[in-house]
Batch of 3 targets.
Target 1
Amino acid sequence: MFLEDKTIKKSLGGEKKDEFDSKLLDLTRVSRMTGGGKYLRFRATVVAGDRKGKVGLGVAKGLDVAQAVEKATRMAKKRLIEVPIINETIPHQVYAKFGAAKVLLKPQKRGRGLVAGGTVRVICSLAGIKNISSKIISKTGNKINNARATIKALKNLKSPMVNNKSDKI
């Protein structure tokens, strides 16, 4: 009886579908030395986005891989930012620095595509940006700092002003 109720709920659409896509950026095993020996954990970095202008980054640790990924996904969904997108690209050029990571994002014409590598490509695709050119200027290969610099750059974007007649006096 209980099993039948579940199948009926699923067929009627009773389960809530998640509108966010998430992608695992980085997964590392971290250890800490204590008096009792080594303390092993896993650190996961996850990017979540709805491909309509919202994207977030989450970093979390857990005792096993599944726990770390699930916690990081929850953190990413909690820390979403709104990205202004105009004609499938960003409104203007933007630069951001986080730690040793430096990222430059430039808008591109329609049809150019995602000219970005690694971390920036994942974040921009999950944000819904289809045409962008980017460059990681720094020498660091730290994915977390590169991701945080990209998120910071997307936060610094200003949406263009709509023609306000109140400006003209």
Target 2
Amino acid sequence: MTRLRHWWLAVTTLPLLIFNPYLRSLLFGMRTFCRSLPDALRGPLLPALQNLTPNVSRITYSVSDTRHAIRDTDERTLRQLADIAALLDLRSSLGLCLRRSLTRYHFLRRVGVPVVLQFGAKFVAGKPDREVTGHAWLTLNDEPYYEADENWRGFVVMLSFPSDSNSQ
């Protein structure tokens, strides 16, 4: 089912990219961002996440760069492009959910959507004698943000960022 969703995402987004050079440029910027994530996450996690959080008040826009495309792009298209960028980064040492969540987080926050990163863990098959698996997803107003229920249900949230104590 997940592969089908990925194919559908590619098929529905391709026409947008063909006719819009700004969106192609934005996708290129998102792919560059995804490729930089393993290096950005070296070292302590909280400072790394703070560095990945854009300071919206400092962002300026000009016609010649991707920031123009970000400002003029709707939330749905930003999500789709972030998902494609994460899917295309096949050689990454990071899992797809982490790449997708961090890319969505960074670019949605740039346009003022106050999403929150969630990092969770659970036992495989729900049994404590099994391996532990992790997942990353976003929430908005304490609700999962465009995340299928089966992807986040059952996970215990280990870290939310930003939390109330480190809000940006």
Target 3
Amino acid sequence: MEDAGKGLGYFFLGLGAGVGVGMLLAPRSGTATRNYLQAKTREGAGYLKQQGQDLVDGANETIERGKQKLRNQVNSLSDAVDAGKQAYRETVETTPFANPKT
């Protein structure tokens, strides 16, 4: 997760540097440049919002897959325990030395 934080930090550093250079070398007037930057900022915010939502959705899917695998393992273990109990009962019932009353 720390790598994602570093990548996001580098992204914002690059974004800031790009804005600074763009303002210095802008071929448009101040108003046109501000409008352009506002539009690009909105686009960037939308992109980040979408990426965040994709990350949340992916995490939720991974959690659900993990829960399903855990349920399957619990069911398998429960079935194995039941089979072991049944095998024990059958062995005890069929072994002549296990039941001295007969």
